[in-house]
Amino acid sequence: MTVELLPRLKPVTAEFLWRSISEVPGDDLPEPKSIDHSTVLYTATGGTRIAPARIREIRHDLVEIAKRQGFPNASSDRQKTAFDARAARYLAEEAGLAFAECCRSGVWAYFAIVLLPDVTTWRFSRGARDRWVGGIRNTFGMLWRRGYLLGAAHSGLQDNWAALDRLTQDAFVQIVERPGVAGNPVVARAISSGWIRAADRVGQKNMEPIARMAIRWLGAYRRAYDLDSLPPQVLDSWVDDTFSRAGEFHGFKY
Amino acid sequence: MRTERLGYPYLKPGEHALSPGAWARVTEAGSEPLPEVLPHWDYSVDVCLRRKLVVHPAILAADCGLDSSTVLGISVSVTSGEQPVRRNCLDETYVLDAESDRVEIDLDINLPGNSLQGRMDVATLLTVRSASSHHPLAPTIPGARLWEDTMPCQLESGGGRLGMEAEDFSKGSPEIAEAPWFFLVGRLDLQEHFGANVRVTLNEARSDVIESIRGRDPVALGFLATDLVRHVLTRVLDDPEFSGEPTDFEPDSVGRTASYWMSAAFPGKDRVQVAGIRNDQPELFEATIASTFGSRHDR
Questions:
Q1: Cβ neighbours of residue B146 under 8 Å, at least 6 residues apart?
Q2: B38-66, pLDDT tens digit by residue?
Q3: Closest CA to A132 of A6, A30, A55, A20
Q4: In Å, what is the CA distance from B196 to each residue of A54, A141, B52?
Q5: Which of residues 122-181 of B touch A (CB under 8 A)?
Q6: Which of A155, A180, A226 faces B87 most closely, judged by CB atoms?
Q7: Does residue A11 sit at the B interface (CB-CB below 8 Å)?
Q8: CA A21, CA B44: separation in Å to the nearest integer?
Q9: Which residues of B touch A144 (CB under 8 A)?
């Protein structure tokens, strides 16, 4: 099966283009005139370039997802969270994007800067550089990662979308933005399930410092103990034990 | 010389307990050692790898205080691409026979080309799955890491661990049109891969710079190295999570790389002391880095 190659931007091009965008006066950006840019490039061989109609369809679908949450008007945190959840599922499961292409930071820089700058501006400010250029916090790359690690069915994993409704934004950040600990989808899902069980005991509103501590401890444990290859019950036990002790540290009795 | 200072809470096998063979790439033409840079790769090329791991069970058992019937795990995982995702490729178990002198374990993995890009890191790991032991310091907790190694292999964008490319700056931002290079530095998350966070872009409009770097002129390379180290260290020194201890950070991460740089330029000094030099004696800070990394003696 041939790989569908996605447009991407070189890192320094993304940087320059973001700087131009960040200097445009006003709070929002209009719909882009073109889905192309003179600096866009593609992987040279090994696949077929995505058809322009497909890219336009992806833009259309993501804009519709944003519109359901108030785009282009200012939206509440709840609406933006809902956008994140739906867009993560779309990018990781429904859009049919090739896994290896999704691992390229330049692809997500293209999504944020060329394909959907209006949505990126709506979701985050134009000054938030990390949300625009490549990297782990890019607006759309982060959502794809979230979907791949935590929600989508692949590699023998079942889909897990229903469980993700229980996680807070902070939980997503703690899990998805710590690749050292949760860069393996099995471990990432175990941590998310452990978070939910802990939240059921101590209350969701108390979870932020507990999760932060637990995930840091799991990162430390991982230096001496491999979590990736543990059987599911053993991994769940590790995670639950860590959340329990973090909870006790913060004054919650288990 | 880099030294690991991570202390494990259990006994680990000595170097005589395992003899890991190198990874070989298997093709229709035969097999050859997996190079650090794989030429002519694209998505249509699957990567089949093989290696032999020779374990000396009697030695391993004695070193670790483990008894026969301990179950060991051998796993291989791959990380590839700028979005750091680890995928398990192989997971097998092996029952330790403490009376046995030698066991050969063949590891074969097939990595579909359409699952790879950029650079791939192939990690092999030997762990304890369930332990039987007579020793209080034996690694009995499941997951205990006994041995591991990682083989990096560049699939795209040429060799080298640091992302480097060229672009004409005059087409981008007028204020840097004549700059020799530009460092694209992300958030500098200390645990993230260094190469994914830090990229060097040379200015194509500066043919003098391009020729010098491509010609490996030591003076130009020294200036580039000094500038890069100074830039990265200046930023990480303000991060309270930057301890300056390499073993606090993932291999090839921003934190580990910066820690090695700091200890090379400022041996014996901790983060606070080096930050103090940067703040109070910036000229000494920069000259010290230049003296270490801009030396005529290439390393």
A1: B12, B13, B60, B64, B72, B126, B127, B128, B139
A2: 888 999 999 999 999 999 999 999 999 99
A3: A20
A4: 28, 14, 31
A5: 125, 127, 129, 141-145, 156, 163, 165, 167, 169, 172-173
A6: A155
A7: yes
A8: 37
A9: 83
Strand order in the sheet with B145-154: B86-95, B71-80, B119-130, B145-154
Contact B230, B286 (CB under 8 A): yes
CB contact under 8 A, B172 and A229: no
> Cis ω on the peptide bond leading into residue A72 (within 30° of 0)?
yes
Under 8 Å between Cβ of A174 and A222: no
Is the CB of B85 less than 8 angstroms away from the CB of A43?
A: no
Can you tell me the distance from the alpha carbon of B123 to that of B87, in angstroms, rounded to the nearest whole number? 10
Q: Where are the beta strands (DSSP E) in chain B?
A: 18-20, 24-27, 30-33, 47-55, 71-80, 86-95, 103-111, 119-130, 145-154, 163-167, 181-185, 198-203
Give the C-alpha separation, A28 to A121, whole Å.
Answer: 6
Question: Are A118 and A29 spatial neighbours (Cβ–Cβ below 8 Å)?
Answer: yes
Q: Which residues of chain B have pLDDT under 70?
A: 1-6, 157-163, 172, 186-187, 196, 295-299
Quote the CA–CA distance of A63 and B62 in Å, as a whole number.
63
The answer to whether the CB atoms of B85 and A105 lie below 8 A apart is no
Contact B114 A145 (CB under 8 A): no
Kindly state whether B214 is in contact with chain A, defined as any CB-CB distance less than 8 angstroms. Answer: no
Q: What pLDDT is attached to residue A1?
A: 65
Residues 61 to 90 of A: which have CB under 8 A from any B CB?
none
**B7 touching A, CB under 8 A?**
no
Residue A59, number of CB atoms within 10 A of its CB: 19
Indicate yes or no: pTM above 0.90: no
Q: So what's the pLDDT on residue B162?
A: 61
Place of tokens 């941590």: A191
For residue B40, the model assigns a pLDDT of 85
Indicate yes or no: CB of A226 within 8 angstroms of CB of B143: yes
Confidence band of A67 (pLDDT split at 50, 70, 90):
very high
List the single residue in A135, A180, A224 with the smallest CB-CB distance to B9. Answer: A224
